[in-house]
Structures are given as C-alpha cells and as structure tokens.
C-alpha cells in the first residue's frame, strides 16, 4: 500500500472521501470517518488492511485511483504483478530485503530524501549498460566512498527495475549479493546463491541460467571480501553448481568462468577499483556522487520548515568544514539536521554543542534518550544505552553489522527493548521476516562502540572478542580493519571537555578523565616506535587530535614526532593538517620532524571527506602563491609551515601552491617533489623561489 505515498496531498484527501463511497457500493462496512480523517498514509493503509483484508483493500485502492486521475498507479500495479517467472529479484544479504523497497524513510519529507531515482540518477544508470565494446558482456564498477549510501542507491536501482522504469528491456533476473554476507559462507555455489531467498521458485534454475544475458548480478561492498582476482585458474569454478568458498565462487563469476555472458555491477570503495580495473574484462568505471551542496541546502529547508532558521543552520554548517562534508552523506545529513534543530529549539549555542562530528553524534544520542522535559535519561534509559554500546563494541571486534536475538540478549537488549530502539531511530530492521537488526548507520555503531570504552571495562564484556583499548588504538591507527573508519576519532572526540560534561549528564558517570592519560601514553608509544610510518596512518592520528581539540594533548604528542607522511587528498584533510602543524612550531629544540604531503586528489581515504580535485586547481597558481587567494586552509597551512621547525618537506600532488613558504622559513632545507605535476608557470615560480636569497634549500629531489 505504499502507492498512497505517490499521492499529492489534495489527491490523498480525495482518496479518503471516495473511500467512504466505494466501501458502501461494495457492500463493505465503512471505516469510521473520524479515523479516516486523521489517518496518515501508512495509518490509512493499515486501517484498510485490518478492516477488509489485504486483497480487498488493494482492490478498493485500484477502484479509487482512476477516479482521482491517477490511472498511472493502476498501470504500475499491473506491471508489478507480472509473473515472477518473467521478472525475478533475489536479495541475498540485503538490508531489510524487500522491506527497504517500501520507501519507508527516516526523514518523512517526501521528494527531498526518498528512495526514488532522480532524473540525473536515472540517466546515468541508463548509461551504465550502454554497449562500449561490441559483443562483450557488461561489467560496471561503481566507485563509492565508505558510508556514502551506495547500498541505498543500489536499492533505488532495484526498486526502479521492479517498477518497470529501468532495465526491464535488458534484464529479466537481478541477483543482489552482499560480500559482507558472502564471506560468512564457507561452502556455497552460484546455484545456492541464486536459489537462496528466491521469492518464487516456479522457474527452474536451469531455465534461468539458460539465458545468462538476461541476468544482472549486483555485488555490493566488494572490498569486504578482499577479492584480488589472482587465484590460480585451476582453483576456480567452471560450473554454476560447483561448490567452493563464497570468495572463490564470486571470483569465478567476476573472472567470467561461470555464466560469462551475464552482466555485473560491482560496488566498491575507491581504493579497490584501481586494483580491479586491470583484472576485469573491459570494465565501465563509474563514480557514485554524494549529496551536492544544493541538495544539502534543500534538505535543510525541508527539515526545518522555517526557512529563516533553516538558512541560519545551513550557513553555520557551511562554515564548518567537517560537518558540511558530513552532510553530503544523506542519512548523516538527516542526523545533523535533527540534532541542530533540537539544539536550536532549546536555545543552545551550536558552537558549544554541535561544532564537531563527535559532538553532533553525542547530541543526537542525548536527545534520543532524554525524555521531553527532563534533563537526563531515566535509569532504565541509561541501562539500555549501555547495552547498546556493549552490542556495538562486540560488533566492531567481530566484524558484525547485523545482530540476531542471541547477540542482543548477550549484551542486555531484551525483546521489549528493540521496539524502543526502533522508535528512537537508532536501530533499523534488517529483514522483515526475521528478528535481525542493525544500527541506522555504520557510523552510529562506531560511535556507540567508542562510548563503550568510556562506560565499562573491556574485561567485563560478555564477549571475549572485545579487546582492551590499547589493542583498539593499534588496530585503528594501523588501518588493520577497513571497516573501522571513525572509531578512533570518536573515542578521542569524547575526551573533549565539553563532551565529558555531557557524558556526565547523560550517564551520571564515565571513565573519560581516567582514560585520557592512558590514551596519550598509547599514542606516544605508537609514534616513538621504530619506523612509525610502517605502523601508523598519521592522517588518522591527526584526525583524532583534531577531534579532541586539546592543546596540551596535541603538544605532548607532537613532541614525540620525528617524521610524518600524511596525504592531503581531501579538503577536510587541509583543516586537520593546519591544526596539527601549528604544534610543530612549539616543539622543543630536538631533531626537527620531517613532513610529507602527498596523494592524488582522486584517491579518497574516508567517507566524510569531500573530493577536492577542483579545490587544488581553482584559479591560477600565481594568485594562490602571491597571497591574493586568501580563502581556506591552504593559506593556513602555508602560514604554519612558515614558522615550523621542520627541515624536510615532501610534496606529491598536482600543484606547487606551497612553494612560497621556502622564502619565509630558513629552516626548510630539503624539498622532494616526487610525482608532482607542475605547469609551466609553476616551474617558473619555483625557479623564482629558489633564486630568492631568503630561500635556504640545500637539496631538491
């Protein structure tokens, strides 16, 4: 009955009025008008189904649609009722399965954040499978940053296909395979993957695989399975019924050893496609775009209702590089709006309560668990929050993102608690048929896991998989787990003084003050070890320092730093680098640290980071280098480098924008420009810098 969501408000009102007439004409007992009048779309659908049964309610709706000039909905229903033998959609490991396709959105703002493809998305998807190489099967690789909403985008694709508006002339069968689920399967076959969770088994598998050119396999989160596509051919499957590990079956499919004529749509993080492109057969490389700036602005206006307050909030976020980048991820945009709106309604200063990513998540959590009119959660609410954080920690260490009843009970979440977590919009149902749940977003699970370490000792956790905080830091900063994107940043962000105060109010007690020295000691051990670059991703370390925003914390850590390489690939990286570099200026008279900047703008390393290829090259170089550009973190980094005691600086990027610092800081003696691509004007400018008597460069590579 989600067809009611397709109606405009005036059409929905007409539908209600005609419903009363149609029920009488059909000899059915009308629903009391008072209930119909106040019912929302979903409520009305439930009322009709409960009163008349599913099929009679559906028949009533089909009678009314033409009378309100929406015969198109009847046509759509006719298409969707086509025999499953002709069009089959199988979702293996898909969040909520078909339930996700029911267009149930957290936002409750129709047309602004729904699950219908936009015109631009529809046009780009049509191009995905346009023939590029004659008589070659289609392979499309969709590059998407972590947590940007690629699974939801794929669901929108499948919804459009099931509506008959996309790919119906190309594919009769779509099979969705989630690599996060596939890696759990020790032994399976392509036949098993196809037949598992099929909504209708009326079509024999042999008939399906007999027309492979009509099959589309959608493979989500390819990086989870770590497919290198380098396995010896002798180990690959040659038959779709042959059993192997989930990873080997998928590799056989991707390398065209089974059903080679089928089409493939592979969704992967940006660092994966470069490795895949050379191993796939003529892949069509595509990129999934985030929310555009205009979309973020539109969503703020829709969310707040009051345009004045919406624009005030939008302007404030736009001036906060990290939060604005966060808003380019649809669901996180909803969360930011929700937090800001409630803080503004309470008359609070956004700069004090929602200035960083950690503070936004904590604000959202505080508002969720604090009853209206109260200043802190109830004792029962505190207990549920602690259980939720315990569950999140177990999930991070066991690489679990979907939780069943056993995991919930083990961490103290009972059957009566799950409806509460769903109502609070912290949980979502993973499948309509089973009792499995996930956090609303992977970032929310990471945040709750970070909170766990401030609430309880890992030694007391019911799961032995949960390890001490030292192991967490080492795992995070070495990037041993690709799925740990913000866990370390959240942990350090919760050490901020303002967050400690809110945690005290939220939980009555927590361990952040006693943990701070322990965390600092762990970090110093990391940067002081031999060959720290082999052990630590310095940009992650600097993001953690940026979140905690403690001068004492940062200066203590930077005093241990001797050399660091951190790629400035995205615009927010500049803010982080600028913040951390200033602490190089106050280092004691010890051997000077070496700093290296690098990374191509197209190589994204995180999810809340906005691609900045255009940012590096905006305007001509002379404007930036001569001081006329003014804007942004580039100028701040330049100013910090001018006073930094570092001696060695390495650039590996697509600009010479930082060269002028060598005429301001005589400490800079070594410059490496490996892989730097300079224009003729930039080379000329470098020569002028080198000839400047203030420049003290002794080595140029």
Structure description:
This protein is α/β, with parallel strands linked by helices. The chain is globular, with a radius of gyration of 28 Å. One of its GO terms (molecular function) is ATP binding. Residues 1-83 form the Pyrin domain. Residues 138-270 form the NACHT domain.
Task: Give the helix/strand layout.
Elements: H1 9-25, H2 33-38, H3 41-52, H4 54-64, H5 71-80, E1 88-92, H6 119-128, E2 139-143, H7 150-163, E3 173-178, H8 179-182, H9 190-195, H10 205-209, E4 215-220, H11 246-254, E5 263-268, H12 271-277, E6 284-287, H13 293-304, H14 307-318, H15 321-326, H16 330-345, H17 350-353, H18 357-369, H19 379-398, H20 405-410, H21 417-423, E7 427-429, E8 437-439, H22 442-455, H23 469-477, H24 487-493, H25 497-507, H26 512-528, H27 532-535, H28 538-548, H29 551-558, E9 563-567, H30 571-581, E10 594-598, H31 613-616, H32 621-625, H33 632-643, E11 648-652, E12 670-672, H34 680-690, E13 699-700
Parallel strand pairs: 1-3, 2-5, 2-6, 3-4, 4-5, 9-10, 10-11, 11-12, 12-13
Antiparallel strand pairs: 7-8
